[in-house]
Amino acid sequence: MSSFIDDHEMTTVSTKDVTFVGAMERHDALVQIYPPGPQLGRKWELGEDAITIGRDSSNHIVIPKNAVSRKHAKVSLEGKTRILTDLQSTNGSYLNGRPIISAPLNQGDQIKIGGTIFKYLVGSNVETAYHEEIYRMAIVDGLTNINNKRFFMGEIERETARAVRHSRPLSLILFDIDRFKNINDTYGHLAGDTILYQMAREISNRIRSGELFARYGGEEFVILLPETPKAGAMKFGEQLRRLVSETVFRFENVIIPVTVSVGVATLDKEHCNAETLIALADEKLYAAKSDGRNCVVG
Questions:
Q1: Catalytic residue among 219, 220, 246, 252, which?
Q2: Cβ within 8 Å of residue 162, ≥6 positions away
Q3: Strand pairing class (102-104; 170-177)
Q4: Is residue 44 predicted with pLDDT exceeding 70?
Q5: Which DSSP state fits 166?
Q6: What is the pLDDT of residue 26?
Q7: With 50 as the cut, is the pLDDT of residue 33 above it?
């Protein structure tokens, strides 16, 4: 499945990228947490002077993407409060998934400019929070806030070994959004980002303790179901398919219909390790696509 992220489009630092006066007193910073690439984890310390974010090279933080306006947003200090302000950008500035005109920033807030996401860190020990965030980025997808493929691969290796050793059932669900490229082409990549984020949030609410939900890549997701035989996994897959098809996905007041195709695989004598289990789930997902999409195959 193709990814909607172009790794060559990344946040860059202009000659105005400096440590600002007052940074040591304020103890706050912005950290880029998405998309993957050389600038992932880059930190900008904040001070008393306002900084701007945009496509033009005169900004303190430069994001060379068409979805970003030349002067897109600014972060300023008003009294003791850090403020994010949209500079009448074409595609808007988002704070924790919601469009804003001007809003105060609090610890852990996420700022989305185009397809780039920053996290706001503030407190008496920003450096510790920064290193914790770097660790978190190693296992969590910055856009959807669920586990990433790297974390999933480690977990499925452990779970398949445990299931085989103790003769316990284990199932895997692999699913992706139907015709996601058409959604990006029709409504734009920002709409695609919003759908991925909203879908991950909706499904996360249905994941039980002990189960693992992760972004596998692009518009493709996985759910690992320990102690779950095939019948239970098929039922879960159908509930998942129905949940997505009945969810109202909205971007800029436009409702976008979304469906998913689901492949279900269960550990057996022929598929008794992580590699073969994933391959079987992928085969079933391909069959679901061939059967007309918006269905479950296991």
A1: 219
A2: 168, 226
A3: unpaired
A4: yes
A5: H
A6: 57
A7: yes
Q: Which residues contact 239 (CB under 8 A, 6 or more apart)?
A: 206
Residue 219 designated active-site: yes
What's the burial of 165, exposed, middle or buried (CB within 10 Å: 0-12/13-18/19+)?
exposed
Residue 288 to residue 240: CA distance in whole angstroms: 14
Q: Average pLDDT of 244-250?
A: 97
Contact criterion met (CB below 8 Å) for 256 and 183: yes
Which three-class secondary structure state does DSSP give residue 118? strand
What is the C-alpha separation between 180 and 60, in angstroms, rounded? 34
Does residue 204 register a pLDDT over 60? yes
Return the percent helix, strand and coil in the chain, to nearest 5.
30, 30, 40
Phi, psi of 195 (to 5 degrees): -65, -45
pLDDT at 91 over 90: yes
Q: What is d(CA 170, CA 228) in angstroms, rounded to the nearest whole number?
A: 5
